[in-house]
Amino acid sequence: MAVLIKQRRVIADSWQPLDPASGCWLQVQEDGLLPEFPADGDLLVPLALWRARGDDLLQRRGRVGLRLGPGDDPAAIAASLERFALIAVDFPKFGDGRGYSIARLLRERYGYKGELRAVGEVARDHLHAMAQCGFDAFQLRAGEDPQEALKAFGDFSEHYQATTAQPQPLFRRRRA
User: Fold this and answer.
1) What is the Cα–Cα distance from 74 to 17, expressed in whole angstroms?
2) Residue 20: is its pLDDT beyond 60?
3) How confident is the model at residue 28, as a pLDDT?
4) What gap in Å lies between CA 99 and CA 135, rounded to an integer?
5) Which one of 13, 50, 102, 130 has the minimum C-beta count within 10 Å?
6) What's the whole-number mean pLDDT along residues 85-103?
7) What pLDDT does residue 4 have?
8) Do strands 3-6 and 9-11 pair parallel, antiparallel, or not at all (unpaired)?
9) What's the pLDDT at 165?
């Protein structure tokens, strides 16, 4: 099980992922229909399952979270963001930075206020920058030491540029 850091604390994850990357994928039945999913509990689903069964997911007991891949456009779900208690953004490779842009769009352009979680190849080296883009939860990749990873949030004391966490660039903060 992957380690989860939320609000700068190591915690247990209560969400049940239903996607290929987690190994918990709901297989399509012989008749071409998706099988039933659990009637309660918090489910984290990929965008394709949300598009196919969104109304059914909302009828169950429990919260619904959405997993976005690096090629998914957050504009496609902008009108329904309030339905998701969690949005997880996948980083499939260490050097793939598209998730940073997705996070900033969700927070700044679309005003998403819920939990924004980085998943996939999430390492200590990325945590500080991810937090500046709006992520508040991080599912570390296998082998990462969570206590060491927590230190990443203190690596830098100041930022020159504007970020989601600090919307004013340094020159404006100094002038004020």
Assistant:
1) 19
2) no
3) 47
4) 10
5) 13
6) 93
7) 94
8) antiparallel
9) 81
Please state, in angstroms and as integers, the Cα–Cα distance from residue 161 to each residue in 84, 133, 134, following that order: 30, 11, 14
- Measured CA to CA in angstroms, residue 20 lies from 29, 69, 99, 112, 156 at distances of 16, 11, 18, 25, 35
Beta strand 86-91 with 64-68: parallel, antiparallel or unpaired? parallel
Pairwise pLDDT comparison (170 vs 137), residue with the higher score: 137
Q: Tens digit of pLDDT for each residue in 56-76?
A: 888 888 899 999 999 999 999
Q: Which helix (H) or strand (E) holds 117?
A: strand 115-120
Hunting for tokens 């500080």 — which residue is that? 128
Distance of CA 28 to the CA centre of its chain: 25
Chain length of the chain: 176
Domain boundaries along the sequence of the chain: 3-27+37-175
For the 3-27+37-175 domain, the top CATH level (class) is alpha beta
d(CA 74, CA 101): 10
pLDDT of residue 32: 45
**DSSP assignment, residue 104?**
H
Using alpha carbons, select from 134, 128, 120 the residue that is nearest to residue 151: 128
**H or E stretch including 79?**
none
